[in-house]
Write a structure and sequence with these properties.
By secondary structure, the chain is mainly α. It has 5 helices and 2 strands; from the N terminus they run H-H-H-H-E-E-H. The longest helix has about 70 residues. The protein is rod-shaped and about 115 Å long. It starts with a helix and ends with a helix.
Length: about 150
């Protein structure tokens, strides 16, 4: 009880300037701090929610784009596998016809690469071990060919 009496006496002895400063702190700064922290937390939740939403939208769009690209590649692969002319050329690519057929097969594959747009190179490995590709680069040394064919 004595402490509160002393505190009251001390408050009464303060100069008006200090009393106004303490009143300003209670009336002005404390509510501003409370409102500011509340606003910060609310805006933080909104920003996190929007970030999650935008991230999910971006991932969905990337998934759609990748699916479209993979579908296009699958379509080209299927068209190569089911093309009867190409199969006939691959099957008769023995002996003297090998050079002419190779040029026709690789020309056919280059035309697919040009028309597809998103495909940079096509490689076909025939059951007989012959390799046909549209690029000028290096592909599958002889030692790797049996493992690629599953032998």
């Amino acid at each position: 009880m004595r402490k509160t009496k002393t505190a009251r006496l001390a408050w009464k002895n303060w100069k008006l300037r200090y009393k106004l400063l303490v009143a300003f702190i209670y009336i002005g700064i404390i509510p501003v701090i409370l409102i500011g922290s509340f606003s910060f937390r609310a805006s933080q939740k909104v920003v996190l929610s929007n970030t999650k939403q935008y991230t999910m939208e971006i991932l969905t769009q990337i998934n759609k784009n990748l699916t479209a690209k993979i579908d296009a590649i699958n379509s080209v692969s299927l068209s190569i596998v089911t093309n009867q002319q190409l199969r006939a050329k691959l099957n008769e690519s023995d002996g003297l016809l090998l050079g002419k057929n190779r040029m026709e097969i690789e020309g056919f594959l280059r035309n697919i690469v040009i028309s597809a747009g998103d495909i940079g190179e096509i490689i076909v490995i025939h059951n007989k071990g012959n390799k046909y590709w549209t690029g000028d680069g290096y592909f599958a040394p002889e030692a790797e060919t049996p493992s690629l064919l599953g032998k």
